[in-house]
Amino acid sequence: MVDLGLHQDPPLEELSTPDRLDIRRIVYHCVYCLDRGVSTALERTLSFSDGSVNVALPSVTTAPGFALADASDVFLHSAQPAWHIVKIRQILSTAYHNKYEYENEASLPNAISTWTLCYKAQEWLENAPQNTAGPFTILYTLESLYTTVIILSPMHRFIGTSDYSKVLLFEHCMDYIRKLHQILETPSLVPLMTYLDIQRAYQVSSWFLDLLDRHSELVLNRSVPPLPNIAFETPEPPVIDNKDRANCHARASVCLDYTQDLLQYCLRKWGIATLLDTFQTISASARKRLMQSPAIYIPGAGPYVTGPPLHPSAGGGYPGYHHGHYGL
Prior knowledge:
Oligomer: single chain
Number of strands: 0
Order of helices and strands: HHHHHHHHHHH
Shape: globular
Radius of gyration: 21 Å
C-alpha cells in the first residue's frame, strides 16, 4: 500500500474525480483498520507509522458510482458509522506505538499520555453516531474497551504502571470479555464474531491472568487504590466503581468462564484448539486460587457461594440473522 502511495492524498494538481479520490481513501482506511487491528491483537510491528500518513476520510455516504435508487440495501445507509471506527483505530495505533517508543509511563508526552488517551477513547465512544442501527452500539463499546486495555497494558519496555492502573486494567479486561461474550449470547449477532475478536479475547485474558498471578492481593482487594499523581493539564483517570470491587472474586471467576466459552466457539467454528488448550493450561492455577477463596456473594444468586458462579449459556446457531438488518 505504501509502495502504491495510498498512504498520502495526491497533490492538488494531480486530483482526479471526487469518486476516484474517495475510492483511494476507502481502500487506505480499510487496510489501515485491518493492519492496526491485526498487529495489536497478534502483538506484531505495525506495517507503517502514523507519521507517514496524510489521508482524509472519504466523503461518500453511499457506494461510489451508484445512484441511490440503484444501490443495494447494503449501501442505502450512511457510511459514517463505519468511518467512526477509523478514529478509534488511530487512538489504538498511538497507544500501541507508545509501548515500544517510550521507556516508561512518566516519559510519555502529555498529548499522548496514558490518561489523555483513555480520555480520548471515552470521548470517542460518547461522540459515536447516535442514529446507528444493528450491532454498531456493541461494536463501538468493544472497540473503546479494547483500546483502553491496550493503553493500560504493559508491553515491551513499558513498565512501572501504578497500582491504580493495574486495577483499572483488571476491570477493563473483565468488562471487555463480558461484553464480547454478549455476542455469543445473542444468536443474531453471532455471525459478526471474527477470529480477530477471539485473538483479542485470548490476548486480554493473558493480561488478566498475569494480573491475577502477579498482583492477586491488589486486584482482588475490595478497596480502590489511590489515584496516581498526574500533571495539572492531564485529564483525570477513568473512575473505578467501588460497587464492582466488592464482588471482584465472583466477577473474575465469570471472566475465566466467559473466556473459555469464547475459545470453545473458536474451536467449533474454525477447528483451532491451540488458544483453548493454552488458556486452560495457564488459567488452571488462577481457577484453583479463586475456588479456594472465601465465600463470595453474587447479587441475585441467593446465599453466599464458593467457587465460580454459574453464567448464562452462550447458545449457538444463527436464527434471526439477516445481513440487511445491520446496514453495513
